[in-house]
Protein backbone atom coordinates (compact mmCIF):
# COMPACT_ATOMS: atom_id res chain seq x y z
CA UNK A 1 0.00 0.00 0.00
CA UNK A 2 3.05 2.25 -0.36
CA UNK A 3 1.54 4.26 -3.19
CA UNK A 4 -1.45 5.18 -1.02
CA UNK A 5 0.80 6.85 1.54
CA UNK A 6 2.25 8.98 -1.24
CA UNK A 7 -1.21 10.22 -2.15
CA UNK A 8 -3.22 12.81 -0.24
CA UNK A 9 -6.59 11.26 0.53
CA UNK A 10 -9.39 13.80 0.23
CA UNK A 11 -12.12 13.25 2.84
CA UNK A 12 -15.51 14.78 2.06
CA UNK A 13 -17.63 16.04 4.94
CA UNK A 14 -20.77 18.00 5.57
CA UNK A 15 -20.09 21.37 7.13
CA UNK A 16 -22.04 20.98 10.38
CA UNK A 17 -20.17 20.90 13.67
CA UNK A 18 -21.17 17.25 14.18
CA UNK A 19 -20.11 16.19 10.69
CA UNK A 20 -16.78 18.01 11.01
CA UNK A 21 -16.14 16.34 14.35
CA UNK A 22 -16.95 12.92 12.87
CA UNK A 23 -14.69 13.51 9.90
CA UNK A 24 -11.96 14.68 12.28
CA UNK A 25 -12.07 11.28 14.03
CA UNK A 26 -11.41 9.42 10.77
CA UNK A 27 -8.82 11.96 9.57
CA UNK A 28 -6.90 11.54 12.83
CA UNK A 29 -6.90 7.73 12.59
CA UNK A 30 -5.46 8.02 9.08
CA UNK A 31 -2.85 10.70 9.88
CA UNK A 32 -1.77 8.74 13.00
CA UNK A 33 -1.08 5.85 10.62
CA UNK A 34 1.11 8.11 8.47
CA UNK A 35 -1.44 8.88 5.75
CA UNK A 36 -1.72 12.43 4.34
CA UNK A 37 -5.32 13.68 4.26
CA UNK A 38 -7.21 16.77 3.19
CA UNK A 39 -10.71 17.62 4.45
CA UNK A 40 -13.13 18.88 1.78
CA UNK A 41 -16.50 20.39 2.90
CA UNK A 42 -19.55 19.40 0.79
CA UNK A 43 -22.94 21.04 1.33
CA UNK A 44 -26.09 18.84 1.26
CA UNK A 45 -29.83 19.64 0.87
CA UNK A 46 -30.36 18.21 4.38
CA UNK A 47 -28.22 21.03 5.79
CA UNK A 48 -29.85 23.78 3.72
CA UNK A 49 -33.50 22.89 4.37
CA UNK A 50 -35.32 23.11 7.69
CA UNK A 51 -38.26 20.95 6.50
CA UNK A 52 -38.95 17.75 8.48
CA UNK A 53 -36.57 14.95 7.42
CA UNK A 54 -39.55 12.67 6.73
CA UNK A 55 -40.62 15.15 4.01
CA UNK A 56 -37.24 15.72 2.34
CA UNK A 57 -36.75 11.99 1.87
CA UNK A 58 -34.18 9.26 2.24
CA UNK A 59 -30.54 10.12 1.79
CA UNK A 60 -30.83 13.88 2.35
CA UNK A 61 -27.58 13.97 4.25
CA UNK A 62 -25.75 11.34 2.26
CA UNK A 63 -26.45 11.72 -1.46
CA UNK A 64 -24.45 14.91 -2.09
CA UNK A 65 -21.41 13.38 -0.38
CA UNK A 66 -21.82 10.23 -2.45
CA UNK A 67 -22.05 12.31 -5.62
CA UNK A 68 -18.82 14.12 -4.70
CA UNK A 69 -17.25 10.68 -4.22
CA UNK A 70 -18.45 9.32 -7.57
CA UNK A 71 -17.35 12.59 -9.31
CA UNK A 72 -13.88 12.06 -7.79
CA UNK A 73 -13.99 15.40 -5.97
CA UNK A 74 -13.23 13.40 -2.82
CA UNK A 75 -11.85 9.90 -2.15
CA UNK A 76 -13.60 9.15 1.13
CA UNK A 77 -17.02 10.08 2.49
CA UNK A 78 -17.81 10.04 6.22
CA UNK A 79 -21.47 9.70 7.22
CA UNK A 80 -23.45 9.07 10.39
CA UNK A 81 -24.20 5.41 9.78
CA UNK A 82 -27.82 5.84 10.86
CA UNK A 83 -28.39 8.40 8.07
CA UNK A 84 -27.14 5.96 5.43
CA UNK A 85 -29.86 4.35 3.26
CA UNK A 86 -29.84 0.54 3.59
CA UNK A 87 -29.81 -0.02 -0.19
CA UNK A 88 -26.27 -0.33 -1.57
CA UNK A 89 -25.20 2.46 -3.93
CA UNK A 90 -23.70 1.52 -7.29
CA UNK A 91 -19.98 2.26 -7.45
CA UNK A 92 -19.64 2.86 -3.72
CA UNK A 93 -18.18 0.57 -1.09
CA UNK A 94 -18.79 0.72 2.67
CA UNK A 95 -15.09 0.34 3.37
CA UNK A 96 -15.09 0.78 7.14
CA UNK A 97 -17.31 1.02 10.20
CA UNK A 98 -15.16 2.42 13.03
CA UNK A 99 -15.57 1.72 16.78
CA UNK A 100 -19.00 2.84 17.86
CA UNK A 101 -19.79 5.57 20.36
CA UNK A 102 -22.45 4.96 23.03
CA UNK A 103 -25.54 4.22 20.87
CA UNK A 104 -28.17 5.32 23.42
CA UNK A 105 -30.48 8.32 23.25
CA UNK A 106 -30.17 11.06 25.83
CA UNK A 107 -32.68 13.36 27.50
CA UNK A 108 -31.91 17.02 27.95
CA UNK A 109 -34.55 18.42 30.28
CA UNK A 110 -35.04 21.65 32.21
CA UNK A 111 -34.01 21.76 35.85
CA UNK A 112 -32.02 18.53 35.59
CA UNK A 113 -35.19 16.41 35.30
CA UNK A 114 -35.32 12.77 34.18
CA UNK A 115 -38.12 11.34 32.00
CA UNK A 116 -39.93 9.97 35.05
CA UNK A 117 -39.74 13.34 36.78
CA UNK A 118 -41.28 15.33 33.91
CA UNK A 119 -44.87 16.30 34.80
CA UNK A 120 -47.78 15.10 32.69
CA UNK A 121 -48.26 17.54 29.81
CA UNK A 122 -44.56 18.41 29.63
CA UNK A 123 -43.52 19.25 26.05
CA UNK A 124 -40.71 17.13 24.61
CA UNK A 125 -39.19 18.04 21.25
CA UNK A 126 -38.22 15.42 18.70
CA UNK A 127 -38.78 15.09 14.96
CA UNK A 128 -38.07 11.38 14.99
CA UNK A 129 -41.14 9.08 14.67
CA UNK A 130 -39.13 6.39 16.48
CA UNK A 131 -38.49 8.59 19.51
CA UNK A 132 -42.01 10.01 19.32
CA UNK A 133 -43.61 6.55 19.40
CA UNK A 134 -41.47 5.21 22.23
CA UNK A 135 -41.98 8.37 24.31
CA UNK A 136 -45.74 8.20 23.89
CA UNK A 137 -45.77 4.47 24.68
CA UNK A 138 -44.34 5.22 28.13
CA UNK A 139 -47.79 6.51 29.08
CA UNK A 140 -46.42 9.50 30.98
CA UNK A 141 -48.77 11.99 29.31
CA UNK A 142 -45.88 13.76 27.61
CA UNK A 143 -46.70 16.04 24.69
CA UNK A 144 -44.31 15.39 21.81
CA UNK A 145 -43.56 18.29 19.47
CA UNK A 146 -41.69 17.92 16.16
CA UNK A 147 -38.46 19.93 15.92
CA UNK A 148 -35.45 20.10 13.64
CA UNK A 149 -32.16 21.89 13.53
CA UNK A 150 -28.62 21.17 14.60
CA UNK A 151 -27.65 20.01 18.07
CA UNK A 152 -27.07 23.54 19.44
CA UNK A 153 -30.45 24.73 18.11
CA UNK A 154 -32.22 21.84 19.84
CA UNK A 155 -30.45 22.31 23.15
CA UNK A 156 -31.31 26.02 22.90
CA UNK A 157 -35.04 25.24 22.87
CA UNK A 158 -34.73 23.80 26.38
CA UNK A 159 -32.43 26.53 27.67
CA UNK A 160 -34.83 29.20 26.38
CA UNK A 161 -37.83 27.56 28.05
CA UNK A 162 -39.62 26.90 24.74
CA UNK A 163 -39.59 23.14 25.46
CA UNK A 164 -39.36 21.15 28.68
CA UNK A 165 -37.00 18.63 27.11
CA UNK A 166 -35.49 17.26 23.91
CA UNK A 167 -34.17 13.79 23.06
CA UNK A 168 -30.90 13.52 21.12
CA UNK A 169 -28.35 10.85 20.32
CA UNK A 170 -25.75 10.68 23.08
CA UNK A 171 -23.07 10.05 20.45
CA UNK A 172 -23.72 13.35 18.69
CA UNK A 173 -23.56 15.25 21.98
CA UNK A 174 -20.33 13.50 22.86
CA UNK A 175 -18.74 14.37 19.53
CA UNK A 176 -19.57 18.08 19.80
CA UNK A 177 -18.46 18.15 23.45
CA UNK A 178 -21.89 18.69 25.01
CA UNK A 179 -22.32 15.67 27.31
CA UNK A 180 -22.72 18.21 30.13
CA UNK A 181 -26.31 19.07 29.12
CA UNK A 182 -27.61 15.46 29.41
CA UNK A 183 -29.99 14.97 32.33
CA UNK A 184 -30.65 11.25 31.69
CA UNK A 185 -29.21 8.65 29.34
CA UNK A 186 -32.19 6.57 28.27
CA UNK A 187 -32.16 2.83 28.87
CA UNK A 188 -32.67 0.89 25.61
CA UNK A 189 -35.40 -1.07 27.46
CA UNK A 190 -37.47 2.14 27.20
CA UNK A 191 -35.95 3.77 24.15
CA UNK A 192 -34.20 1.65 21.55
CA UNK A 193 -31.87 3.79 19.44
CA UNK A 194 -32.07 4.07 15.66
CA UNK A 195 -30.38 1.25 13.75
CA UNK A 196 -26.65 2.12 13.55
CA UNK A 197 -26.95 5.11 15.88
CA UNK A 198 -23.58 6.13 17.28
CA UNK A 199 -21.70 4.45 14.44
CA UNK A 200 -19.97 6.07 11.47
CA UNK A 201 -19.90 4.82 7.89
CA UNK A 202 -16.77 5.42 5.83
CA UNK A 203 -17.30 5.02 2.10
CA UNK A 204 -15.01 4.97 -0.90
CA UNK A 205 -15.29 4.19 -4.64
CA UNK A 206 -15.32 0.47 -5.53
CA UNK A 207 -12.57 1.09 -8.10
CA UNK A 208 -10.27 2.70 -5.49
CA UNK A 209 -9.09 -0.58 -3.99
CA UNK A 210 -6.02 0.95 -2.30
CA UNK A 211 -8.10 3.40 -0.28
CA UNK A 212 -10.62 0.66 0.51
CA UNK A 213 -7.88 -1.60 1.91
CA UNK A 214 -6.33 1.26 3.84
CA UNK A 215 -9.68 2.07 5.49
CA UNK A 216 -10.37 -1.61 6.23
CA UNK A 217 -7.02 -2.10 7.93
CA UNK A 218 -6.85 1.17 9.89
CA UNK A 219 -10.42 2.29 10.56
CA UNK A 220 -12.77 -0.74 10.55
CA UNK A 221 -13.96 -2.37 13.80
CA UNK A 222 -15.33 -5.89 13.48
CA UNK A 223 -17.69 -5.88 16.48
CA UNK A 224 -19.28 -2.61 15.37
CA UNK A 225 -19.62 -3.80 11.80
CA UNK A 226 -21.35 -7.00 12.95
CA UNK A 227 -23.78 -5.04 15.17
CA UNK A 228 -24.56 -2.47 12.49
CA UNK A 229 -25.05 -5.24 9.91
CA UNK A 230 -27.72 -6.90 12.08
CA UNK A 231 -29.50 -3.62 12.85
CA UNK A 232 -29.52 -2.43 9.26
CA UNK A 233 -30.62 -5.84 7.96
CA UNK A 234 -33.63 -5.61 10.28
CA UNK A 235 -34.46 -2.10 9.07
CA UNK A 236 -34.05 -3.11 5.46
CA UNK A 237 -36.24 -6.23 5.81
CA UNK A 238 -38.96 -4.06 7.34
CA UNK A 239 -38.65 -2.00 4.17
CA UNK A 240 -38.27 1.04 6.35
CA UNK A 241 -35.90 3.98 6.13
CA UNK A 242 -34.02 6.15 8.60
CA UNK A 243 -37.13 8.18 9.45
CA UNK A 244 -39.37 5.15 10.15
CA UNK A 245 -40.58 4.38 13.68
CA UNK A 246 -38.06 1.55 13.99
CA UNK A 247 -35.33 1.05 16.57
CA UNK A 248 -32.68 -1.65 16.86
CA UNK A 249 -29.69 -2.40 19.01
CA UNK A 250 -27.26 -5.27 18.52
CA UNK A 251 -24.54 -6.13 20.98
CA UNK A 252 -21.80 -8.71 20.94
CA UNK A 253 -22.34 -10.76 24.13
CA UNK A 254 -20.53 -13.62 25.81
CA UNK A 255 -22.48 -16.87 25.82
CA UNK A 256 -21.80 -20.57 26.38
CA UNK A 257 -21.58 -23.12 23.58
CA UNK A 258 -22.85 -26.73 23.81
CA UNK A 259 -19.73 -27.80 25.75
CA UNK A 260 -19.92 -24.94 28.23
CA UNK A 261 -17.09 -22.91 26.67
CA UNK A 262 -17.43 -19.13 26.46
CA UNK A 263 -18.14 -17.86 22.94
CA UNK A 264 -19.22 -14.54 21.50
CA UNK A 265 -22.70 -14.24 20.08
CA UNK A 266 -24.70 -11.33 18.78
CA UNK A 267 -27.88 -10.23 20.50
CA UNK A 268 -30.38 -8.03 18.71
CA UNK A 269 -33.35 -6.12 20.11
CA UNK A 270 -35.85 -4.45 17.83
CA UNK A 271 -38.85 -2.17 18.07
CA UNK A 272 -41.38 -1.03 15.49
CA UNK A 273 -44.37 1.24 16.03
CA UNK A 274 -47.65 1.56 14.23
CA UNK A 275 -50.15 4.40 14.41
CA UNK A 276 -47.55 7.03 15.35
CA UNK A 277 -49.50 9.81 13.62
CA UNK A 278 -52.84 8.98 15.26
CA UNK A 279 -53.82 8.55 18.90
CA UNK A 280 -53.31 4.80 19.03
CA UNK A 281 -49.59 4.22 18.94
CA UNK A 282 -48.73 0.54 19.23
CA UNK A 283 -45.25 -0.65 20.07
CA UNK A 284 -43.98 -4.06 18.97
CA UNK A 285 -40.80 -5.42 20.51
CA UNK A 286 -38.77 -8.55 19.83
CA UNK A 287 -35.29 -9.88 20.48
CA UNK A 288 -33.12 -12.76 19.33
CA UNK A 289 -29.57 -14.06 19.52
CA UNK A 290 -27.33 -15.70 16.90
CA UNK A 291 -23.77 -16.57 15.94
CA UNK A 292 -21.62 -13.57 15.05
CA UNK A 293 -21.33 -14.60 11.41
CA UNK A 294 -25.14 -14.67 11.11
CA UNK A 295 -25.72 -10.93 11.68
CA UNK A 296 -27.58 -10.41 8.45
CA UNK A 297 -29.88 -13.43 8.93
CA UNK A 298 -30.51 -12.35 12.54
CA UNK A 299 -31.68 -8.93 11.41
CA UNK A 300 -34.00 -10.43 8.81
CA UNK A 301 -35.34 -12.97 11.31
CA UNK A 302 -36.21 -10.26 13.82
CA UNK A 303 -37.89 -8.18 11.12
CA UNK A 304 -40.01 -11.21 10.16
CA UNK A 305 -41.00 -11.62 13.80
CA UNK A 306 -41.96 -7.95 14.07
CA UNK A 307 -43.97 -8.24 10.84
CA UNK A 308 -45.76 -11.27 12.32
CA UNK A 309 -46.60 -9.20 15.37
CA UNK A 310 -48.23 -6.62 13.10
CA UNK A 311 -45.44 -4.26 12.07
CA UNK A 312 -46.69 -4.45 8.47
CA UNK A 313 -48.34 -1.08 8.87
CA UNK A 314 -45.03 0.64 9.71
CA UNK A 315 -44.94 3.89 7.76
CA UNK A 316 -41.82 5.18 6.05
N1 LIG B 1 -30.64 12.35 12.37
C1 LIG B 1 -29.55 13.27 12.55
C2 LIG B 1 -28.40 12.64 13.24
N2 LIG B 1 -27.61 11.78 12.59
C3 LIG B 1 -26.66 11.33 13.48
C4 LIG B 1 -26.87 11.94 14.69
C5 LIG B 1 -26.10 11.74 15.93
C6 LIG B 1 -24.87 10.88 15.83
C7 LIG B 1 -25.14 9.41 15.68
O1 LIG B 1 -26.24 8.91 15.98
O2 LIG B 1 -24.21 8.72 15.25
C8 LIG B 1 -27.96 12.81 14.56
C9 LIG B 1 -28.54 13.68 15.59
C10 LIG B 1 -29.43 13.00 16.59
O3 LIG B 1 -30.15 12.05 16.25
O4 LIG B 1 -29.45 13.44 17.75
Any overview of this molecule?
The chain is of the alpha/beta class and 316 residues long. The chain folds into 3 domains: 2-98 and 199-220, 3-Layer(aba) Sandwich (D-Maltodextrin-Binding Protein, domain 2); 105-185, 3-Layer(aba) Sandwich (D-Maltodextrin-Binding Protein, domain 2); 228-313, Double Stranded RNA Binding Domain (2-Layer Sandwich). The chain has helices spanning 2-5, 17-32, 45-48, 53-56, 63-70, 129-137, 151-159, 170-175, 209-218, 222-237, 295-309, and strands at residues 8-13, 36-41, 76-80, 92-96, 105-109, 123-125, 143-145, 165-169, 184-185, 200-205, 246-256, 262-274, 282-291. The strands form 3 sheets. A 5-stranded mixed beta sheet has the order 2-1-3-10-4, sandwiched between helices. A 5-stranded mixed beta sheet has the order 7-6-8-5-9, sandwiched between helices. Strand 11 (246-256) and strand 12 form a beta hairpin. Helix 10 (222-237) packs parallel to helix 11 (295-309). The protein is globular.
Structural class: alpha/beta
Q: What portion of residues is helical?
A: 25-40%
The ligands found in this model are: ligand PBG
By DSSP (H or I, 4+ residues per run), the number of helices equals: 11
Uncertain segments are none
% residues in beta strands: 25-35%
| Spatial order of the strands forming the largest sheet | 2-1-3-10-4
CATH architecture of the largest domain: 3-Layer(aba) Sandwich
Mean pLDDT across every amino acid position: 91
CATH topology of the largest domain: D-Maltodextrin-Binding Protein, domain 2
What is the helix/strand order? Answer: HEHEHHHEEEEHEHEHEEHHEEEH
How many discrete domains? 3
CATH H-level homologous superfamily name of the largest domain: Periplasmic binding protein-like II
Specify the overall morphology.
globular
State the end-to-end CA separation: 43 Å
Rg for CA atoms = 20 Å
- Please identify the top-level CATH class of the largest domain: Alpha Beta
| Biggest sheet layout | 5 strands, mixed
Q: What oligomeric assembly is this protein in?
A: single chain
Tally of DSSP β-strands: 13
Function: Tetrapolymerization of the monopyrrole PBG into the hydroxymethylbilane pre-uroporphyrinogen in several discrete steps.
Modified residues (S-(dipyrrolylmethanemethyl)cysteine): 242
Cofactor: dipyrromethane
Subunit structure: Monomer.
Amino acid sequence: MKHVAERTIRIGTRGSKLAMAQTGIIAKQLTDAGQRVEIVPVSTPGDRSMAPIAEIGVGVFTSALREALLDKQVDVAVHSCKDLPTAPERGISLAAVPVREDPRDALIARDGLTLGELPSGAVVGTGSPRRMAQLRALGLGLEVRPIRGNIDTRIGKVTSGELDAVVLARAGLSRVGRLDVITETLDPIQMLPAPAQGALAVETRVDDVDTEHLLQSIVDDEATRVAVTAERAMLSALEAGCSAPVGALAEVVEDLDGEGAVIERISLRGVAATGVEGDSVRILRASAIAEKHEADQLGRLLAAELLDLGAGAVSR
